[in-house]
Write a structure and sequence with these properties.
heterotrimer, A alpha/beta, B mainly alpha, C mainly alpha, B: mainly alpha, MetI-like fold, 13 helices, about 80% helix, C: mainly alpha, 12 helices
């Protein structure tokens, strides 16, 4: 094996005083070889991004590396000056970020922004710079390079922008490429394309790639070697094959066990159960306002939506961003008024009810939202927010409070927490609170609108389990809205796939996964990362041996 | 685009119309305008004659409609005091006020933008504290008092610049400082806040990851974005300043439109006051429109779809 | 970033329990130097205003033509009139102390009128959007297009310079910022999912506005209130200075500066003292406003 491109030895990065732990990264050692993709995996707060930012010299001022070495190009990056580090950036090491939507400057054309690389680091003439830029655009498979060259970032899609950032990173053929969650913000099909592109680049360039991610399926797709981090430390390290199939450390096993897979227990047949919720011919259009230079336009967000859900069923509604699934949800809970169509709840059509007539029916459909931080009012106690619903429907406050205490136990939170404020809870706990709040009014239908998308996988797994339990215990009907087919497969009985406002596929989970009929569904399924990886059953792995280097450098 | 501009103009006209209606009714509802013209000691015959001549006995909406019809033809009435067309009187004075406004806004921008940028780049540094001090003091200091203090120091004690009048460029120095300083805190705060926000934006991180030199990151990537809202604030401030010139011009006896307004108020010259309110509000509308155009010109997200 | 990963479900909030919003606010307040300075300065002025009769020996209106233009003690005057006397022989300290009442009253009442008009318009526009928003935006534009000083001067000139008139005119002219800021703050809060959740839980419109919107835009409202209070105080002083605000012999600071202007050349302290008083009052209000903005920044994502 050749010499590593990057060699991190015993790196420790301090957190500012008063944080929840003293070090963001502790005694971390890591090597990256040319043409090798090393995935750093971990949940939020594990220190995986800090490692990449330290290497790039882009750490926020509050964080300082306190010991260790980062050897790159024969020098210790922790010892060189900021301006020397800046000279390496872009030329010898480059970075791709998580958020393609905001990673480019809105005021300049993308051509200009790529060319800056050449302006800064080379003496190329303008014509040559332009030619090289166009060639880069071609290399990352952007159509019509000439047109893209003169485009502004906002005129491009997220996937296109990520390609621009990649083109920029490749401009000077760096020895090290750092990709920090480069596909997390992208739709599934775009993610697949970008991963494919990165694999292709490994063939054509000699760069070593540090790939930071939280998603084991992406790891399975792309990694040569894997490093698993927890709370600033490496807990396990090895080839992708080893770590994915024979994880040694309990934490790695926990994470792999939480990877959404179709491990759903078989349920009783739903045949013969009454239809609880039925939607027919639902239409919704939006008018998007124009401005001085752009005319307004009309978006058809829901086109003739039709489906029925039986009592006790979990229906998954799957779609990428812009598919109209959120609008559909808003129409169901009547935060938006549908233009046309009917929504029957237990035989009553609530689609055209006035606000007043709707009131008693409100409590029949409740919802848990995506953002655990935006869905609780920061200025009211948990208890106050939980009794809100019952009190609005005429229940006695004390009685409602007693019910709130019960529900807190059901969602496995301390009833004493009712006196606290939302800022005192973690994301997963907040989602539990939101579930409890929805259940306070004893709804028939619970809508989970991307309710676990913002959570770490291990937390996600707990919340999903809780949702299933509650559904069975209370006989709830659940609409599970998600962009993630893997999660949907885990909890749903039936699926609906939406694209551009219309339902393109429907059926049982087995049918949709086994024999998809619509090309879009086929494409979505094909885009799933990690398909070649059979997730090992963690419970059947040999127990962790004492010798397997828990918590230290392997 | 054309449709948008037409809509925008229509709205502007509606705003101007509403402003004129409000000011007209305010001015003409208060007391008997005939007495204002004739004076407190005028005989009842005189007052009756004046009422007759100006048509004050007609219902207010009729008088307003009358005013509006001539206003639409560019006739904003005749001054009761000078017996000249108000447009002519105001036109003579506008030059001074516009000069003062432009000087003052330039002064404010030249002071505020560099300081705001420097403060944002090094928070809590000496320059940040200085910027904070200037803006806190600027917000708290009454401009008329500041003007008087400047007169005491620079005109009376040091004898460097004239205290009043509008004959030479020297007469504009103190008024420019006073009026410009009034607009400085808002612009400086916005620049600082905008720069701090932009500097933490993802695309600045991208620019740094590209290894660009810090000056280029700061001036090409950060400032360009941060300055967009500042420019439109400045345009709006310019509109406010023209309206606010009344205080400054009367302290320094600068013979602009603001001074005219003050004179007209003490002379009870309602047509001139009415016309001035309209003119100032049209300037405000014009500047906000310019701000929108500038914004779109600077921000490709608004310009190219 | 710092969100605790995988907090085990059964345990209550991890580590030392974070503070409630109110405790956190209090802690930040006690550490905020601007707040302490602003409150102290403001406290002194309010104290003087309230207890003016006890703190002064003379009435602010009593003229003593034999004791005109006495300088203050620090310029060689006598202790009897420690801040000197004005051109009519009135005790300058008394006028200053009673003048604080005028300024504070005008500031508070005018800002209250504006706050009511502006926040009702702003919150309704922000919450409902659409046509309501268009109408409110139009009103804001009309208001912004009217030159404040000119209109205020004209109205006071025509209706007379009583305290009532000045307060009402300022109150009716200064609501724009309340409306603009609360409109956009409400728009942001309205997008948050807890508002949707409250609606789905059957909360009535007034309840949503009162329980979920208002508390979360309150910090903006308080900050703008201080700004507009300061604005009203400065405007009143400017109007009075131009002779078209509060009328003599009322002890308004603006009026005192205006009266002192005649003696600018020989007795500059006549304008310096009320000017400094005005500056201190406005400064303390602004510092208070800035501090409140820092202290009440909503607790959210850690």
């Amino acid at each position: 094996m050749s010499d590593p491109i990057l060699s991190i030895r015993n790196l420790t990065v301090d957190l500012p005083k008063g944080g929840d732990r003293p070090h963001a990264v502790e005694a971390l050692s890591l090597d990256i070889q040319p043409k090798e993709i090393v995935c750093i995996v971990g949940e939020s707060g594990s220190g995986k991004s800090i490692t990449s930012f330290t290497t790039m010299g882009l750490l926020p001022k509050a964080l300082t590396p306190s010991s260790g070495e980062v050897i790159f190009d024969g020098q210790d990056l922790l010892k060189i000056s900021a301006s020397e580090h800046a000279k390496l950036r872009g030329r010898r090491m480059a970075m791709i970020f998580q958020e393609p939507m905001s990673a480019l400057n809105p005021c300049y054309t993308v051509g200009n922004q790529i060319e800056e690389m050449f302006e800064q680091h080379t003496d190329l003439a303008a014509a040559e710079r332009r030619a090289r830029t166009l060639r880069l655009l071609q290399e990352v498979h952007l159509p019509e390079p000439e047109r893209i060259y003169t485009s502004y970032p906002h005129q491009l899609s997220g996937g296109q922008r990520q390609r621009i950032v990649i083109a920029m990173a490749l401009a000077l053929d760096p020895a090290l490429l750092i990709a920090d969650e480069p596909t997390t913000a992208l739709d599934l099909s775009t993610q697949a394309q970008i991963l494919h592109l990165l694999k292709e680049l490994r063939e054509h360039h000699s760069a070593g790639i540090m790939f930071v991610t939280h998603d084991f399926d992406v790891v399975a797709e792309i990694a040569d070697r894997v490093v698993v981090m927890k709370e600033g430390r490496i807990v396990e390290e090895g080839t992708a094959e080893e770590v994915l199939n024979r994880p040694q450390h309990p934490y790695t096993r926990l994470l792999i066990d939480a990877v959404p897979r179709r491990t759903r227990v078989e349920r009783d047949s739903l045949d013969g159960r009454p239809e609880l919720l039925k939607v027919a011919g639902l239409e919704k259009t939006y008018h998007v306002k124009g401005n001085m230079f752009r005319p307004g336009r009309i978006v058809h967000a829901c086109k003739n939506i039709e489906f029925a859900v039986r009592k006790g069923e979990t229906l998954g509604i799957v779609g990428e961003s812009g598919s109209g699934k959120s609008t559909l949800v808003k129409c169901l809970i009547r935060l938006e008024d549908p233009d046309e169509g009917a929504v029957w709840v237990e035989g009553t059509n609530i689609a055209a009810f006035s606000k007043r007539a709707l009131h008693p029916y409100r409590k029949m459909i409740q919802i848990v939202f995506q953002d655990p931080y935006g869905s609780l009012n920061p200025r009211r106690t948990i208890g106050d927010q939980l009794v809100e619903g019952p009190v609005n429907f005429g229940r006695d406050r004390a009685e409602a409070m007693a019910r709130a205490r019960e529900l807190m136990k059901i969602v496995r939170l301390d009833p004493e927490a009712l006196n606290r404020y939302p800022n005192q809870f973690s994301g997963g706990q907040r989602q539990r609170i939101c579930i409890a709040r929805a259940l306070m009014v004893e709804p028939k239908v619970l809508i989970a609108d991307e309710a676990v998308s913002a959570l770490d996988v291990s937390v996600q797994k707990e919340v999903l389990k809780l949702l299933n339990e509650i559904r069975d215990k209370m006989g709830l009907t659940v609409l599970f809205i998600t962009h993630d087919l893997r999660v949907a497969a885990q909890v749903c009985d039936n699926l609906i796939v939406m694209q551009q406002g219309a339902i393109v596929e429907r059926g049982t989970v087995d049918k949709v996964f086994g024999a998809p009929s619509h090309p879009y569904t086929q494409q979505l399924l094909a885009a799933q990362p990690g398909q070649g990886w059979d997730v090992p059953d963690v419970s059947k792995l040999p127990p962790v041996s004492a010798a397997s280097g828990v918590g230290g450098v392997v | 685009m054309l449709l948008y501009i037409l809509k925008r103009l229509g709205l502007a006209a509606l705003v101007a119309l509403t402003v004129s209606a409000i000011s007209f009714s305010l001015l003409f509802l208060a007391g008997d305008p005939a007495i204002s013209i004739a004076g407190e000691n005028a005989s009842s015959e005189d007052i009756a004659a004046i009422t007759e001549r100006y048509g004050f006995d007609r219902p207010l909406p009729v008088q307003y409609a009358d005013w509006l019809v001539s206003a639409a033809q560019g006739d904003l009435g005749r001054s009761w005091y000078f017996d000249l067309p108000t447009t002519q009187i105001i036109g003579d004075r506008l030059g001074v006020t516009m000069t003062l406004g432009l000087l003052a806004i330039s002064f404010a921008l030249i002071l505020a933008i560099p300081m705001g940028v420097a403060a944002a780049v090094r928070p809590n540094s000496l320059i940040d504290r200085a910027a904070l001090f200037i803006s806190v003091v600027g917000q708290a200091i009454p401009s008329f008092w500041f003007g008087l203090i400047l007169i005491v120091v620079f005109s009376i004690k040091l004898g460097l610049v004239p205290a009043s009048g509008s004959d030479s460029w020297k007469h504009f120095i103190l008024p420019t400082v006073v009026l410009g300083y009034y607009a400085t805190p808002a612009i400086m705060r916005l620049t600082r806040a905008g720069m701090i926000e932009v500097l933490s934006a993802d695309y600045i991180r991208t620019a740094r990851a590209k290894g660009l030199n810090p000056r280029k990151v700061l001036f090409k990537h950060a400032l360009r974005n941060a300055v967009i809202p500042v420019i439109s604030l400045a345009a709006v401030q310019m509109g406010f300043m023209l309206g606010g010139s009344i205080v400054v011009e009367s302290i320094f006896a600068l013979h602009g439109a603001g001074f005219l307004a003050w004179e007209s108020i003490s002379r009870n010259d309602l047509p001139v006051m009415q016309a001035l309110i309209l003119v100032f509000s049209m300037f405000y509308i014009l500047f906000t429109f310019l701000a929108d155009v500038l914004n779109a010109w600077m921000d490709p997200r608004l310009r190219v779809g | 970033m710092t969100q605790t990963a995988a907090a085990s479900p059964a345990t209550p909030p991890a580590r030392e329990a974070p503070l409630t919003p109110r405790q956190a606010m209090l802690r930040r307040a006690l550490r905020h130097r601007g707040l302490i300075f602003g409150t102290t300065l403001m406290g002194i002025i309010v104290f003087v205003a309230i207890f003016a009769p006890l703190l002064t020996q003379y009435s602010p209106y009593d003229q003593d033509l034999l004791a005109r233009m006495k300088p203050p003690v620090f310029l060689g005057g006598e202790a009897e009139h420690w801040l000197g006397t004005d051109a009519l022989g009135r005790d300058f300290w008394s006028r200053l102390a009673y003048g604080a009442r005028i300024s504070l009253m005008i500031g508070i009442f005018a800002a209250t009128i504006s706050a009511v008009i502006g926040s009702v318009l702003g919150i309704l526009a922000g919450y409902f959007g659409g046509r309501v928003d268009m109408a409110v935006t139009f009103l804001i534009n009309v208001r912004l297009a009217m030159p404040v000083v000119l209109v205020a001067l004209a109205v006071v000139a025509l209706f007379g310079g009583s305290l009532m008139v000045v307060v009402s005119v300022l109150g009716l002219l200064l609501w724009d910022r309340f409306a603009v800021v609360l409109r956009s703050a409400t728009m942001q809060v309205r997008k948050l999912e807890y508002v949707a959740a409250a609606e789905v839980l059957g909360a009535s419109l007034p309840r949503v506005l009162w329980k979920d919107i208002l508390p979360n835009v309150m910090n903006h409202l308080i900050v703008i209130f201080t700004l507009e209070m300061a604005h009203a105080i400065i405007l009143e002083a400017a109007l009075s200075f131009l002779g078209l605000g509060v009328q003599p012999p009322t002890p308004s600071w603006g009026l005192m500066i205006s009266e002192g202007k005649e003696m600018l050349l020989f007795e500059p302290w006549l304008i310096t003292i009320p000017g400094v008083a005005l500056f201190c009052l406005v400064l303390s209000i602004n510092m208070l406003g800035d501090a409140i903005r820092d202290v009440t920044a909503p607790e959210g994502r850690n």
